[in-house]
Amino acid sequence: MPDQKQKDYLFDNPKNVSRLLNGFYVICVLLVIADFIVHRHIGFGWEEIPAFYAIYGFAACVVLVVIAKKMRNIVMRKENYYDE
Amino acid sequence: MSELAPFVLFFIAALLAAVTHGTLRQLILLATPVITGLHLWLNIEAGLLVTHPIMSYELTVMRTDKLSILFAYLFCIASFIAAIFSLHVKDTKQHVAGLMYAGSALGAVFSGDLITLFIFWELLAISSVFLIWARGTERALKAGMRYLVFQVLSGVLLLAGALVYFHDTGSLAFNHIGLGSTAGWLIFIAFGIKSAFPFLHSWLTDGYPEATVTGTVFLSAFTTKVAVYALARGFAGEEILVYIGVTMACFPIFYAVIENDLRKVLAYSLINQVGFMVTGIGIGTALALNGAVAHAFSDVIFKGLLFMSMGAVLYRVGNINGSDLGGLYKSMPKTTVLCIVGALSISAFPLFSGFVSKSMVMTALMHEDYSYLWLLMLFASAGVFHHAGIKIPYFAFFAHDSGIRTQEAPTNMLIAMTIAAVLCIFIGTQPQYLYALLPWEVDYWPYDTTHVLAQLQLLFFSALAFVWLNKKGLYPPELRSTNLDVEWFYRKLLPAGAQRGVTFLYNTKESAVAMVIAPAQRARVMFSKSPVAKYHLSESWPTGSMVFWISIILVTYLLLDIFG
């Protein structure tokens, strides 16, 4: 059975996945902390909101996905819709 | 030597490629962009004007300035990378089409008048469609046909616009045109079709995913970028472009999130990126215009890289649907890494090429105080990262293991992708070289703390949203599906309408005929029952006897005339 010899790949181990994610969360937290230490130039008023870009980025993507999912109700058809 | 227009080299190479094969042809494919690049470097400088008389008119086949030279370099780089990527292809027509296509793009950016531009505009259309048809499937054949209709329509509008423009101004020189006249609008829409304005974009999302593995890499580089160049020359500073550009940047990302065909996801994200360029052209300040063309430069390379990595997957697996892929990092690790470089570049990560060019457009929006549009563009930036930066690599190479085990991409593909990836990082870390090529004088440097921090926050928290949605099971799964877009109007509504129309006309004809025939029939029946029908003359006669009697009458007349 070739399956028994199958190589164990990097993300087959759930520990590696959680390591990656934990590293990622730490960076996210550091970026928010940095916002309070580093002074950003301000172009528009709303940039003064602490961690504006972080909040906006997160909210934008959630809104994007929610709307896109709703869009499926309207625009989604079978794979061979045009070929019929 | 400086009289030689660069496109000529490509057209000669296309001829040679048609009659050679094997190593010799591969050499021609690789040498052409290099020689053309050297020719540009050594002989072509801004301010050249080469005209060619044709009948009573002088065509300006070459007019050079920093703007056109920048695009010419870009097209040489793009065709060099695409040539390496497609080196294994044996199909002659694809190589000839690729060279003709790249040459036409070079011809178009050096065109000094609208007629020359029109000629190359149509050559772009005709040569590129073969890259779709070469796929050989029926879908590709039909998609290519629809693609060609749009492209030719764009050319016809350009020609019409050029003629009206000549009538109005007495000149055909291709400089700033503006939207003040009918001619301006005709040309504007012609450019708009090729740059995939909203509602005119479906040729792109319909055609590009159907092209061959290597064809899409060519397609993504030239057509839309020639259109961006043409808009920058003819319509810089037209405010309507800002709104069009923002729409282009925003609407495709929704489609990209739910689209299953990963090359179609990239086609949508291509429109999104062109949206940033169009916005920059609409703002029209030196910074914005530089941003637009710089972004065109980096986009050709990173979008090419992404299309190449997805092409490599399609080549190896034979399928590019997100729903069927996953876990490919195990068998294609190098392609995975190169794809991620492309993904980081398109997402405008600091140190990658998208960052140094897109930030110019964003900053220009801020300088001109377009506050709400700036927010929308920020939304589009986050969205790019979401669908092109994360979705593409995630669903192809990671996600759940699809069980597919294949081979790493062929060496020539890996080399092409590596060159593109190195360029992405080089432009991202050493932007001064790209900035030096930009046509307008601007003092701009992207790397300051504010920019880097803001961009990192935006991107990391977009990624956090993806992780969160995925963990919660809220992320829409990849589904085998078709999503309706503008093409529905001409692929479903029009044919269905035509079908209905034909049925309606047929029924009308039938009932009209019935209305005439039935009373006639009834009259005949009534007549045959009437006593008159019994008389000899009322019977039905054979046609022959009638002809016979008529000739007897005529002969009688003749005899009377002669002897009477």
Gyration radius of chain A (Cα, Å) is 22 Å
Most extensive interface, residues per chain?
A-B, 51 and 50 residues
Number of strands of chain A: 1
Percentage of residues in DSSP E strands of chain A: under 5%
Q: Which oligomerization state do the chains in this entry correspond to?
A: heterodimer
Mean pLDDT of chain B: 92
Low-pLDDT sequence parts of chain B? none
The total beta strand count of chain B reads 3
Helix content of chain A: 55-70%
Strand order of the largest sheet of chain B: 1-2
The pLDDT mean of chain A sits at: 85
Helical stretch count of chain A?
Answer: 2
Strand share of the residues of chain B? under 5%
Helix amount of chain B:
over 70%
Query: Total domains of chain A, how many?
Result: 1
Kindly report how far apart the N and C termini of chain A lie. 44 Å
Instruction: Give the radius of gyration of chain B.
Output: 31 Å
Give the distance, in angstroms, between the N- and C-terminal Cα atoms of chain B.
92 Å
**Biggest sheet descriptor of chain A:** none
> Main sheet of chain B, how many strands, which sense, barrel?
2 strands, antiparallel
Note the topology:
The complex is a heterodimer of chains A (84) and B (564).
Chain A: H1 14-37, H2 52-75, E1 76-77
Chain B: H1 6-19, H2 22-43, E1 49-54, E2 57-63, H3 66-85, H4 92-110, H5 114-133, H6 138-169, H7 182-194, H8 202-207, H9 215-234, H10 240-258, H11 262-283, H12 286-317, H13 333-346, H14 353-367, H15 371-397, H16 411-429, H17 431-437, H18 449-471, E3 482-483, H19 487-529, H20 543-563
Antiparallel strand pairs in B: 1-2
Helix pairs in contact in B: 1-2, 1-4, 2-3, 3-4, 3-9, 3-12, 3-16, 4-5, 4-9, 5-6, 5-9, 6-7, 7-9, 9-11, 9-12, 10-11, 10-15, 11-12, 11-14, 11-15, 12-13, 12-14, 12-16, 13-15, 13-16, 14-16, 15-18, 16-17
